Amino acid sequence: MTAFSLLLPVYGRDDPAHLRRAFESAVQEQTRRPDEVVVVQDGPVPDALAAELAALVGSSPVPARLVELPHNLGLAAALTAGLDACAHDVVARMDADDIALPERFERQLAVIDEGFDLVGSGLLEFEDDERVTIGVRTPPVGEERIHRYARFHQPFNHPTVMYRRQAVRRAGGYVAEGLMEDYWLFARMLVAGARVANLPEPLLKYRVGAGAYRRRGGWSQLGAELTLQRQLRGLGFTSRREALRNRVVRGGYRLLPEAVRKVSYRGLLQRGFRRGRSGTEGGHR
User: Fold this and answer.
1) Within 13 Å of residue 149, how many CA atoms lie on the same side as its CB?
2) What does the alpha-carbon distance between residue 275 and residue 280 come to, in Å, rounded to a whole number?
3) Per the domain annotation, does 104 fall within a domain?
4) In sequence order, what are the residues at sequence separation of 6 or more whose Cβ sits closer than 8 angstroms to the Cβ of residue 190?
5) What's the number of domains the chain is made of?
6) DSSP-based three-state secondary structure for 232
7) What is the pLDDT of residues 220-257, one digit of tens each?
8) Using alpha carbons only, what angle is made at residue 280 by residues 278 and 281, rounded to the nearest 5 degrees?
9) Strands (E), the chain
10) Residue 24, domain member (yes or no)
11) What is the largest CA-CA distance in the chain?
12) Domain assignment present for 83
């Protein structure tokens, strides 16, 4: 199979124990291990986390390197630096507090080797105990459905993706966009003609941390949402009708109380998935 890199960004608020569990699941427990691991330290970190990083990189059973950024620049910048440091064109994403299931990379790499540029998967949500699932995110499957779904919602679970670096760069790479740099990148990749796929089965356990839904709301996120919708429309990715709908529905969601936002978010996911599955909504890509 094609050689690939694992890209793992870390920042100051990450938990050392969560990082170790993520690293072990993505390296030691995989049926197909990555050929290298690139860990990006996004700015200064506490001593305990720095010690854990050094221990993991130093004891990794596959080649591993630590890229240290002098300041906390945010996820988009950290991923860009990490992509530049990767030795291989195929790169798997992973967050520092999630858990990869053992067959994740083997399953995704098989699809990449069929000629695809971007492959995501389903995921299981958990809070503190990885054995207790609190939610399941099943992405749209099939290129036509992915394109249709993407006009309303992010079509890939970002921590699950494996992609070709050249396809990411061809689309312009990561650009900071609130908490939606992934959505903006993947929309541009779709427009650029990237071949995309999703495996519906959960291949990753996603930790839903405290404040996850709070960060999705507020005036700053509303501003980022409206900017994103203007950009999607300017790209020709959405129709005027779709852009208006997204501003009202997705923009309104940003100003809901946190408890309501949590319930609404799951509703948006399910409605968006049904829309992508049924193919009932028109518009151009």
Assistant:
1) 28
2) 6
3) no
4) 146, 147, 150, 196, 237, 285
5) 1
6) helix
7) 778 888 888 899 999 999 999 998 988 887 777 676 67
8) 125
9) 4-11, 36-42, 64-69, 90-93, 99-100, 118-126, 135-137, 162-164, 196-207
10) yes
11) 54
12) yes
